Amino acid sequence: MVDKEYQIIANNFDLAGRASSDIKRTLKELNINPGIIKKVCASSYEAEINVVIHSVGGYATFHIDEDEIVLDFYDDGPGIFDIELAMLEGYTTANSIANSNGFGAGMGLSNIKRSADKLEIESDEFGTHLRATFFLRGNQHEDF
Ligand SMILES: Nc1ncnc2c1ncn2[C@@H]1O[C@H](COP(=O)(O)OP(=O)(O)OP(=O)(O)O)[C@@H](O)[C@H]1O
Ligand SMILES: [Mg+2]
Fold first, then answer.
1. Which atom number of ligand 1 is nearest to the Cα of residue 111?
2. b/e map 87-123, b = 16+ CB within 10 Å
3. Ligand 2 mean position to 110 CA, how many Å?
């Protein structure tokens, strides 16, 4: 079992992706199936960038045990006004700075939804908590 925690700094495009890189390295060291690593890293990168570009900062936790990998992203910020709308491909409120750094296609949340076995988002006007879970035993994909 491994647990890690990473700080995520808003609008810092130099450090953006640091948490996801460490998660990738950790999963490789643990010899996790490459297909699962790909899904987890795609999800963690999208969620991490969302904290960088849409919040005022936050942190991520990474947990792995023999059953599952759990990624949690907590941020302070404006929150997601309408989660259902935000999940739609192409919906974005990203600003021009995010755009000039290559983000803001409105694809992040839908990519996470597709990659994770379970995606839970709680958000209000003070911030957001996103949890993505990946099952490591058999086919337990939950659709909701
Ligand atoms: N942590 C967050 N805090 C506040 N709003 C968020 C957060 N994450 C997502 N959102 C809202 O949901 C929208 C859709 O997010 P999504 O990740 O799908 O696209 P994007 O970040 O705008 O672009 P892309 O991920 O393709 O670079 C965002 O534009 C933003 O309005
Ligand atoms: Mg995004």
1. 18
2. beeeebebeeebeeeebbebebbbbbbebbbbbebeb
3. 9
CB burial of residue 61 (10 Å; 0-12, 13-18, 19+): middle
Q: What is the mean pLDDT of each run of 10 residues along the chain (144 residues)?
A: 97 96 98 97 98 98 97 98 97 96 97 98 98 86 53
Q: Is 135 in the pocket of ligand 1 (CB under 6 A)?
A: no
Neighbours of 20 (CB within 10 A): 23
How many Å lie between the centroid of ligand 1 and the Cα of residue 37?
22
Taking the alpha carbons at both ends of the chain, their separation in whole angstroms is: 27
CA of 98 from ligand 2 middle (Å) equals: 10
Pick the CATH number of 2-135 from 3.40.50.10950, 3.30.565.10, 3.40.50.620, 3.40.50.10260: 3.30.565.10
| Domain parsing of the chain, residue ranges | 2-135
What pLDDT is stored for residue 69 in this prediction? Answer: 98
Instruction: For the beta carbon of residue 79, count every other beta carbon within 10 angstroms.
Output: 18
